[in-house]
Amino acid sequence: MQVHPEVAAALSANRPVVALESTIISHGLPRPDNLGIARQIEQAVRDGGAVPATIAIVAGQARIGLDDAALSAIATSDEVVKVSVRDIATIAARRGIGATTVASTAHLAARAGISVFATGGLGGVHREARESWDESADLTTLSRTPITVVCAGVKSILDVPATLERLETLNVGVIGYRTDAFPGFYLADSGYRLDWRLDTPAEVADVLRARALLGTDRYGLVIANPIPATDQLDVALHDRTLLAGLAAAREHGVRGKDVTPFLLDFFHRETDGASLTANVTLVLNNARVAAEIAAAYAATA
Ligand code: PSU
Ligand code: MN
What we know:
single chain; Indigoidine synthase fold; 48% helix; two-stranded antiparallel sheet; binds pseudouridine-5'-monophosphate
């Protein structure tokens, strides 16, 4: 594992750091925009007062914080593999290049001593999981990883209520940030209520401190931060695209780790970029809020 000098310096001085995943760059956002967006996400963390640590496997090394050459390679190389926790050791031993999911980013971030992480959306329980057993390793990893993830909920391509049930079973807390509703990624409200709501970074930092004192920080915590309602995808366009995307995935027999990238790409193409605009807006928003939370926590820890 190699920690970028700027990240290492911040961690040892107890200054705020925010981990960022890289699968969103390699597989979640279309080229060639993805590289510029990855840089904007890092800038949003800086604007929020923290040091960004984008995580990936480069030349077999788990890198915590990427220099520009590594970020470019993750965004542009055709060799980049989507890496979950179960793949980390193999890609490292094979000296490969890999982009980390929420699960593997959370794992490596926690191992590096980073406690706050920003992403777009979590993986979750897929629709038809009763037949396919397709549930993202993001959920079980969060159940045993000390990390706080700021995200815009999960995509409606997933089974949202089943995902919330699983998070409950797995002891992963879900707290709405300035909302009582679980966000719906492209939409501000998924239609499902949450038990808890916090309204400021300081309030979140209070919860993080209590977690550490009471030992529940061994489990992940989700801070669910909705896209502003004014920036959300048109609801009718969303519903239409969702039905068509699910049908296309079924028709093409898409399976396993290809399902999420397939549906993301379908949305970006079929909405003429409107879903991409929403996706970028919500990720930048999450990066800034995560930085503010990390800063509030570092100030009092
Ligand atoms: N959801 C998104 N964008 C993404 C992903 C999920 O809105 O890019 C990525 C994340 O890296 C997440 C992964 O951890 O997909 C989940 O994939 P799977 O369902 O194969 O675990
Ligand atoms: Mn899966």
